[in-house]
Amino acid sequence: MCLLEGWLEDERMQAIAAENNLSETAFLVRSGKSYELRWFTPTCEVDLCGHATLASAFVIFEYLDREAGVIRFQTRSGELRVRRNGDLLAMDFPARPAQRCEPNAALERALGKAPRELYLARDYMAVYDSEDEVRTLAPDLHALAQIDCFATIVTAPGRQADFVSRFFAPRSGIPEDPVTGSAHCTLVPYWADRLGKTSLQALQVSPRGGELWCELQGDRVSISGQAVLYLEGSIFL
């Protein structure tokens, strides 16, 4: 995340995100008692991002405002809140339930294996029968980038966790995201309904992967995870 004294031009922030070449770069400006927060992939601005929000909250809690109980972010998805939950940071995000849709032959070819069911919210969500199917998928990313949708989530029941997932967004500059909070805004309502419970343990099984603790709270989703400091520095403009 990049902490700013004031907003840069959109083109400058997009260039920084492209240079970072991470799934998303968060830009943060303090505004009274809250923070304005924006996220950019290497190619575009996005309306919601989990792990960059988690990273921003971690920096605030650990270095900018250690006495804070709740951090409020003003974003394109409305106000998002992050609070401490023991060793975890819990993000309060809007739920994005998906609707079941007809099979998509082009998507099936791009994924390399037809899913059991297909749903659509902001992203396509392809549901498979087993964790192994999700882990071994090797999609054609060029073909996947031609699908008219922001991204594709693939998911299945987990062996240890309640469910597993992966997230591909080559159309938006993200070949495969390691851990995707925004995807769980769609995953959690689906799995809560399917499994008949609101508290869920999730595992994103990308090569870098990550574990999330989630809870459906009406039209909101609580997503908890851990963060550590990896690198700090300055960008010269």
Question: Could you list some keywords that capture this structure?
Answer:
single chain; 237 residues; alpha+beta; Diaminopimelate Epimerase, Chain A, domain 1; 2 domains; 15-stranded mixed β-sheet; 24% helix; 35% strand
Strand content: 25-35%
Beta strand count: 15
The main β sheet shows up as: 15 strands, mixed
Radius of gyration: 18 Å
| H/E element order | EHEEEHEEEEHEEHHEEHEEE
Mean pLDDT: 95
Distance between the termini: 16 Å
Measured as a percent range, the helix fraction is 10-25%
Q: Name the CATH architecture of the largest domain.
A: Roll
The CATH class assignment of the largest domain is Alpha Beta
CATH-assigned fold name of the largest domain: Diaminopimelate Epimerase, Chain A, domain 1
Q: Could you state the CATH homologous superfamily of the largest domain? A: Diaminopimelate Epimerase, Chain A, domain 1
Q: Could you say how many structural domains there are in total?
A: 2
List strands and helices in order, with pairings.
Layout: E1 2-4, H1 10-20, E2 25-31, E3 34-40, E4 45-46, H2 51-64, E5 70-75, E6 78-85, E7 88-94, E8 99-100, H3 105-111, E9 117-120, E10 124-127, H4 131-136, H5 141-144, E11 152-157, E12 163-168, H6 181-195, E13 199-204, E14 210-217, E15 220-225
Parallel strand pairs: 1-2, 3-5, 10-11, 12-13
Antiparallel strand pairs: 2-3, 3-4, 5-6, 6-7, 7-15, 8-9, 9-10, 11-12, 13-14, 14-15
